[in-house]
Amino acid sequence: MILVTGGAGYIGSHCVLALLAKGFDVVIFDNLETGHIETVETLKKEGNVQFVKGDLKNLKDINSVFDDFQIDAVVHFAALSLVGESVKEPQKYYYNNVYGSLNLLNAMLEHNVKKIVFSSTAATYGEPEYIPIDEKHPQNPINPYGNSKLMVEKIMDDYSKAYDLRSVRLRYFNVAGADSKARAGEWHDPETHLIPNVLKSTFSGGKTFEMYGDDYPTKDGTCVRDYINIEDLAQAHILALEYLNNGGETNYFNLGTKNGDTVKEVFSACEKVTEKTIPVNIMPRRAGDPASLVADNSKAKEILGWNPKHTLEESIKTAYLWENRFIN
Ligand SMILES: NC(=O)c1ccc[n+]([C@@H]2O[C@H](COP(=O)([O-])OP(=O)(O)OC[C@H]3O[C@@H](n4cnc5c(N)ncnc54)[C@H](O)[C@@H]3O)[C@@H](O)[C@H]2O)c1
Question: Is position 204 within any domain?
Fold first, then answer.
């Protein structure tokens, strides 16, 4: 069985769907702090999914999962991931993301489980020194969230060397879209991501969309980001598991498309998909937003055989399908 921590959340739930489609049995471990029991119920209809409500901050909770189930490998999504909140409450972030991950790794060692795929982030790179960002780019996070993820990456490196606990760290850029059958989608509260927020502005009673900064040194003045489709992202986790199962060494990969889209381009694509004129206010820049973040994804393509297929427009279409299903 595969243990998926954070499987009730946005990315974890899509990864569970991909695992089930590949015939894996899954145990979801989640404290439901930002995840949803409704998502777990949907996933249970799709295959052999067990759910354990528990918190990684409690070693006992996570140890009991390894006692109760025969776990072959772990895919670890569970984390808090709001950058702004992490600046205001670093204690919460280090406790949850670092201490929680340490408990997980120690429970794995205790039970002789030696393979893990970990959700890392482009935020571990900090302010880009060059674009596109490859895996050799220095990692200098500029907020506690990014620091917490980098700390876990370093712990994983040390555990790999000392205990042969092999890990694949996947550094996501901007994850976008929803399951193409609308079984799962992005469901954050508060929602801080661009596409769901633009789409929410199309609904009656929705807020005017606020665009932060149109004076960046980019082609239209708005920030450039690399939007990677959620189903393509989920596939990379399957490939990472296969890589570990085939004896692959501890490794780390960027997951992005190598294409940057500006906020204005995403906004226009949302208007095209929804066939609506979306109300927008141009606001001043937000602190801490780099002008451009784009991934060099060659390493994942070469070593994992990953081949992201979906376009930005497809991600927006599925996200819109999900938002419609959720709100109406
Ligand atoms: N969404 C993105 O664009 C993005 C980008 C880069 C990295 N990531 C990383 O991907 C992972 C998943 O992100 P997401 O957007 O799906 O977030 P999410 O909030 O939707 O999912 C996280 C899940 O983890 C659970 N969780 C958190 N702390 C826990 C704990 N201590 N014990 C048990 N369960 C716990 C939550 O209840 C939730 O179900 C995170 O690690 C995040 O840092 C996300």
Answer: no
What atom in ligand 1 is closest to the CA of residue 120?
7
Summarize pLDDT for 69-126 with one digit per residue, the tens.
Answer: 999 999 999 999 999 999 999 999 999 999 999 999 999 999 999 999 999 999 999 9
Whether residue 131 has pLDDT greater than 60: yes
Specify the CATH number for the domain of residue 22: 3.40.50.720
For residue 81, the enclosing domain spans 2-176+227-255
* Ligand 1 centre distance from Cα of residue 230 (Å): 14
Residue among 3, 11, 51 to mutate when testing ligand 1 (max atoms within 8 A of CB): 11
Question: Does the beta carbon of 32 sit less than 6 angstroms from any atom of ligand 1?
Answer: yes
Q: Which two tokens stand for residue 115?
A: 């393979």
Task: Report the candidate in 108, 101, 44, 34 with the shortest Cα–Cα distance to residue 73.
Answer: 108
pTM for this one? Answer: 0.97
Q: What does the buried/exposed string (b/e) look like for 26-64 if buried means 16 or more CB atoms within 10 Å of the residue's CB?
A: bbbbbbeebbbeebbebbbebbebbbbebbbeebebbbe
- Say whether the peptide bond before residue 132 is cis (omega within 30 degrees of 0): yes
Distance CA 87, CA 107 (A): 29
In degrees and rounded to multiples of 5, residue 283 shows phi and psi of: -110, 170
Say if CB 182 and CB 328 are below 8 A apart: no
Nearest CA to ligand 1 atom 11: 77
188 CA from centroid of ligand 1 (Å): 10
Does 75 map to a domain? yes
Domains in the chain, number: 1
- 63 within a domain of the structure (yes/no): yes
In a domain, 217, yes or no: no
47 and 25 in contact (C-beta within 8 Å)?
A: yes
Distance 277 CA to ligand 1 centre (A): 32
Strands 261-262, 224-225: pairing kind: antiparallel
Sign of the Cα pseudo-torsion (127, 128, 133, 139, in order): negative
CB 2 within 8 A of CB 74: yes
